[in-house]
Amino acid sequence: MTTLFIADLHLDPARPDVAQAFFRFMENQAPQAEALYILGDFFEAWIGDDLQHPFVDDVKQSLRALTDKGIPVYLMHGNRDFLIGDQFCNETGCQLIEDPTLLELYGRKVLLMHGDTLCTNDVDYLAFRGMVRNPDWQKDFLSKSLQERLAIAESIRAASKEKTSELQYEIMDVTQSEVEKVMTEQNVQLLIHGHTHRPAVHKLEVNGKAAERVVLGDWHAVGWKLSIDESGYKLADFAL
Q1: Where are the alpha helices (DSSP H) in the chain?
Q2: Domain residues of the chain, as ranges?
Q3: What's the whole-model pTM score?
Q4: What's domain 2-239's architecture?
Q5: CA–CA separation, 20 vs 5, rounded Å?
Q6: Confidence tier at 207 by pLDDT (50, 70, 90)
Q7: CA dihedral angle for residue 150, residue 154, residue 155, residue 156, rounded to 10 degrees
Q8: Cα 91 to Cα 194: distance, rounded to the nearest angstrom
């Protein structure tokens, strides 16, 4: 059997091509897997589990169809959808996992992350992350009306887009020393993450041993998936 990993789909009604690619993936590829891990930024934005929209209903139904087959779907928060909560999971059968999550897969320890906390040079973003992950901030935000939350989310997205255009390439990528620090602390030789939208397999040395960092790509021009089984892993793209 195979375990599948995806990240950074940024599902949005404005990108029906991505949504349709996801639905096909869930119908044709995911049912053949032992489990599916979604490592953050599943949605372009998530303003609360009380959000109601036909598009969201279709996504939920697709997830529920898979979990009803007995195939577990593990969901990690990203920087866009950190407000996904228990209601969403109850409706879809998904299981939220922590960032980071350490698991043993086919006899090998694997560390899963979204990847944003590895970008330590982007100090402004990390400060913002600390604010919005604060339970008090989230409670206040979720107490607002859907219309207010939508307006705030749009404002944040616009500011983020402007800020990103100004940042240097290196600032928005992971910091190598942080990668090595985290992998050393967790005592792993394989790290899988998304967030940076720079799919690749990076070779490095951790704890005096050969190690690998696998970066999942976003679903924009093409889709990306990582397949792992007893023989190893394969990072591959596919047409949307």
Answers
A1: 16-28, 54-67, 86-92, 123-132, 135-142, 146-166, 176-186
A2: 2-239
A3: 0.95
A4: 4-Layer Sandwich (3.60)
A5: 18
A6: confident
A7: 100
A8: 25
